[in-house]
């Protein structure tokens, strides 16, 4: 009986997949996240988009405005979109943000070199499926080996692929 119940629970949890609990950086200083971040590498279940970068504009309420851009090599132009991440809980200092039904957590950052982000929510291509993506963002398009060592300590284990940050034209947001 117990096994049957476990089986039913397992099947149910797959159908109504929800995001796992995750520890985010505590005492986040949202204002120090301001500025340009280049996405350096991403968990291999996500596409390694070209010239993917984001300009962060912190709000006074602790929210983070994101202006994101990727380079379209067919049209030779940037595709840009914006979203606003609000704190999951306004009273918490944890770096747990959400954009509607999607979670965006900062797992760790030193503000001046790297940030490890984690995303969980419905897939953009199929809203019935939940996906988790972890990525490393950098203040520079390439990482010095000493920063990469620090950043890798904060990165959950798994397979990552490099974003292509080569030959990216300058882009004004
Ligand atoms: C990239 O540009 C091509 C040509 O203009 C266009 O057909 C395509 O939809 C663009 N890709 C995206 C993801 O917008």
TrEMBL record:
For this UniProt entry, which residues form the secretion signal? 1-17
Keywords of the record, alphabetical order, are:
Signal
Boundaries of every Lipocalin/cytosolic fatty-acid binding domain copy: 35-147
* Source domain of life: Eukaryota
One Pfam family assigned to this protein is Lipocalin
Question: For this UniProt entry, which segments traverse the membrane?
Answer: none
Record carries keyword Signal: yes
InterPro entries, A to Z = Calycin, Lipocln_cytosolic_FA-bd_dom
The protein's name is Lipocalin/cytosolic fatty-acid binding domain-containing protein
Q: In which organism is this protein found? A: Timema podura
